[in-house]
Amino acid sequence: MRVIIQRVSEASVTINNVVKSNISAGFLVLLGITHDDTQEDIEWLTNKIIGLRVFSDAQGAMNLSVKDIDGDLLVISQFTLHASTKKGNRPSFLEAARPEIAIPLYEKFVSTLSRKHTKQVYTGEFGADMKVRLLNDGPVTISIDSKNRQ
């Protein structure tokens, strides 16, 4: 499982010209799922996201988590995070999980994140053509892969 986490002042996702979700200060999480991801990956990654201390405290230091600031979370599925560009100029997406594997893992990821954050986690729509808007705060953008824990 691979995520790109962006600290945002605001973010939204629009599908077919209709805003599905929008958030205030918090994280926009782009989530890529591969065919060998498990519940263990979900647990580890959601703990990392909830505990990630990249929000400013009263002194301006990055010491607070999204939970500490009661921030919002918006999770967007993005299979292109597992693109391989080793050969040629057209990316290969063979490592990305097929929908029958990815959808249940995506739903479990969102529900686990919501339980750990103790508030609603907003989403896009799996497999939809989405327009994502964000105001990156900082900018702060962090990449985490559950297969690279060391």
Features of the shown structure:
tRNA-binding, 8 strands, 2 helices, two-stranded antiparallel sheet, six-stranded mixed beta sheet, 150 residues, D-tyrosyl-trna(Tyr) Deacylase, Chain: A, alpha/beta, 21% helix
General description of the model:
With 150 residues, the chain is of the alpha/beta class. The chain has one domain: D-tyrosyl-tRNA(Tyr) deacylase (D-tyrosyl-trna(Tyr) Deacylase, Chain: A), CATH 3.50.80. Helix content is 21%, strand content 37%. Strands 1, 2, 3, 6, 7 and 8 form a six-stranded mixed beta sheet that branches. A two-stranded antiparallel ribbon has the order 4-5. α2 (99-117) links the parallel β6 and β7. α1 (39-51) packs parallel to α2 (99-117). The longest helix has 19 residues, at 99-117. The two termini are 15 Å apart. The relative contact order is 0.30. The model has no long low-confidence stretch (mean pLDDT 95).
Number of strands: 8
Q: For the CA atoms, what is the radius of gyration? A: 15 Å
Order of helices and strands: EEEHEEEHEE
The first-level CATH class name: Alpha Beta
Alpha-beta classification:
alpha/beta
Mean residue pLDDT: 95
Distance between the termini: 15 Å
CATH H-level superfamily: D-tyrosyl-tRNA(Tyr) deacylase
In the residues, how many domains can be counted? 1
What about the largest sheet? 6 strands, mixed
CATH architecture descriptor:
3-Layer(bba) Sandwich
Indicate the overall shape.
globular
Share of helical residues: 10-25%
Strand content: 35-45%
Uncertain residue ranges: none
> What is the overall number of helices?
2
| CATH fold topology | D-tyrosyl-trna(Tyr) Deacylase, Chain: A
